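So, could you explain this one?
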Amino acid sequence: MNILVADDENDIRNLVKLSLEENGYTVLTAKNGKEAWEILQTREVHLAILDVMMPVMDGFSLLRKIREHSTLPVIFLTARGDEFDKVLGLGLGADDYLVKPFSIAELTARVGAQLRRSNEYLSPKSKSDALITYGNLSVDKEKCCAYKDGNLLELGAKEYKLLLYFMEHPERVFTKRQLYQAVWDEDFYFDDNTIMVHISRIRNRIEDDPQKPKYLKTVRGIGYKLHYTGE
């Protein structure tokens, strides 16, 4: 597995690179967003770890470019711990967010969790199980794509995985913690805002009016469920 680490701090890059290589990963490094983007254009990358505050091109700008073309799992690693920055990063399509100083063991665990989830959804499926439909929505698990009325939906990796999880369990109510554990594959960490941001982004893609959802319903005091109410 190839991991891209983009950070303008040499010590951080070297520490993360060494630790990930000790766990069997191949690590590509960049000291700014522009270098990272060039690597993404020329090398196969399975996960990216991005700093936010980088010269030439910052992490948020790089993530916007990535999400125009790819559902590559992205973890932000940054000194900016403000809730606004975290929500912004997740809203742009990041899959996880760690604030410096961080535990290298936790980062390695999160990398492994992201890759396990990514591999699960990218693994070959039988033709009979590859396509799921619900209302006017459909998910092609072989292509890792979702559609509404036959039109491709622009979803980040975690948004796609959340929608697929709902599509596989229609009418079932899930708490935010259950959704986080199912899609982020983590029991030791839970972020309420993360789920709300991703639910909001999914609604903006699948609903005619996100304020009056016909698919993804809020069950007050509990969580969410996929329940189609029709036109």
User: Anything to note?
Assistant: Residues 37 and 62 are 7 Å apart (CA to CA). Confidence is low (pLDDT under 50) at residues 124-128.
